[in-house]
Amino acid sequence: MSQKLNTLIESASQTAGPYVHIGLMPTYAGNAGYYDEEIGTTPFLDEGNAKGEIVEIVGSVFDGTGWAMRDALIESWQCDASGLFAGAEGSDPAFTGHCRFAADADSGEFTLRTVKPAPTTGRGGVKLAPHISLWVVARGINIGLQTRIYFEDEDNSNDPLLNRIEQRPRVDTLIAKKTGDGKYRFDIRLQGAGETVFLDI
Amino acid sequence: MSIPNTPPKSGGYIPRDRNWQPDALTPPYKTSIKRSPQSALLSFPSTLSEETSPVFGHHLLGELDNDLIHNYAQAGESAIGPRIIVHGRVLDELGRGVPGALLEFWQANAGGRYRHKKESYLAPLDPNFGGCGRTITGEDGSYEFRTIQPGPYPWPNGMNDWRPAHIHFSIFGHGFAQRLITQMYFEGDPHIKLCPIVGILKTQAAIDALTAPLDMNRTVPMDSRAFKFDIVLRGQRQTYFENRKEGL
Does B192 contact chain A (CB < 8 Å)? Predict the structure, then answer.
C-alpha cells in the first residue's frame, strides 16, 4: 500500500436545463429588475471609451437536426484590444471582456457586440491569433461546451490551437466570416455536418 | 510581495476527468441525442484565455441577493415552503478553498414551478418567490444562502418523469477553464434514483457528491433547517502562493 493522494475530484456537471435564464439572465427570463445589476449583459463598462475596433458577431446555435436552438446560453471571455485580460495591469478600464448572451426567442439568432481582441502570447512565447473563448450551455448539454471564435480577416496560419486540428476543413468551423464593416457571422453546430470543433482545454 | 523559494509556474489546470464527468450523448435524457457533438473534443493545453476569468466584486451584490425567501417578496411577506439554509465551501481539486468565487443559483418554488415565461406547469407561482440568487465565497471558500426547499416537478422526457427537488448552481472560479454548472440534490429524495438527468452520472460516487445532507448543526431552531453542499472546481497547477485571489 502506498499513501493516499487525498485529492478531490471536480463536481460533476449537470445540464443548465431549460430555465437557466432565470438564474443567469433574469431579464431574458421575463424577470427584469430582479437584480440592480445583471452580470455580463455587455462586455463594456464604458463603450464610448473602449479601445479598439467594436465588432458585432451574429450567429445561431444549431442542433443535430439543423434547428436553431432558442434556449442556449453563451458566455464569452476575451482579452482587450491590447491583448490584456481584465484585471491585468494596464488593461482597458472600459472593458470587462465577459459577456452573456442568448438566442432571440423568435429568430434564434444571437448578437455579441464586443471589442475585436488582439493576439496574445501562449506557452513558450507562441503567438495566438486573436480569438474569443465561448462556453455554451443549454438543456440537453450535459457539460458546457467550450470553443473559440477566430476571425476570417486575421492571420490564423500560425495559431497553435487551430494547427492542432487534424482534419483541416474543420478549422473553418472556428472562423467567423466577415459580412460587413465590423460585422461577422459565427454559427455553432452541435452535431453532424459542419460540426463545430469543441475543446477539452 | 515576492515570495522566495516559489516554485516556477508549471501552469495550467488539471485536465477534466472525462471518465468521471458525464458524456455528451446520454439517450435516456432525450434532448441530449441531437445536442451532443459526435466528434472527439480537441484537447489543448490551457492558455491565458482559460487561466483568467472575469472578477466579480462584492459591490455587485444587493443586500438580499443571498436570501431567496425575501428577495422577491413584498414588504413584510416571505416565500411559502420549507425554509432552509444552503451552505458549503467551494474547493479546488487540491483541497484549497476558492475565495472570491461567484455562485449563482436558481430553482423552482415549493410546488415545483419556475418563474420563467416559457414554463407552463399547472402548479401555481408564489407571488413572493422569484427563484434566483447569488453570492461570493469568503476567504476560505465558504458560502451560504437561504431559500425555500424546491418541489419536484414533471417534465416531458419519458411518459412520467419527475425531476428530484434540486437547486441549479453556476460557479465562476479563477479561470474560465473552471466554469461549471451543476445541480444540488437533497439527501433522501426518492426521485434521485429514477431521474434520467441524474442517471447520466456514471457512478454512485458522482451522484453522492451532488447530494446535500441535512446538517442539523447549522439549523436555526424554530426558523430554518440546513443542508451542506460543497463544490469542487478544477485544480490549478500552482503553489498556493502563486494563486492570486483576483482571477489572474
Answer: no
Nearest-by-CA chain A residue for B20 = A12
Residue B156's pLDDT is 95
Summarised one tens digit per residue, pLDDT across range B193-237 is 999 999 999 999 999 999 999 999 999 999 999 999 999 999 988
**Rounded mean pLDDT of B60-64?**
94
What 3-state DSSP class applies to A15?
coil
CA separation (Å) from A63 to A184, A193, B26, B82, B175? Answer: 21, 11, 15, 39, 28
Phi and psi at residue B58, to the nearest 5°: -60, -25
The alpha-helical segments, DSSP class H, found in A48-135 are: none
A38-67 residues touching B, CB cutoff 8 A: 39-40, 63-65
Please, are residues B187 and B229 in contact by the beta-carbon 8 Å criterion? no
Task: Provide, as residue numbers in chain B, all residues whose Cβ is less than 8 Å from the Cβ of A165.
Answer: 42
Q: Chain A contact for B157, CB < 8 A?
A: no
* Section A155-183 average pLDDT: 97
pLDDT > 70: what percent of chain A? 100
- Scan for cell 464593416, then name that residue: A181
Q: What are the residues whose beta carbons fall under 8 Å from the beta carbon of B148, sequence distance 6 or more?
A: B68, B69, B79, B80, B81, B82, B83, B84, B109, B110, B129
Distance CA A83, CA B84 (A): 45
The answer to whether A146 touches A79, Cβ cutoff 8 Å, is no
User: Is the pTM of the predicted complex or chain greater than 0.90?
Assistant: yes
A104 touches chain B (CB under 8 A): no
Which residues does chain B have within 8 Å of residue A192's beta carbon, measured at their own beta carbons?
A: 38
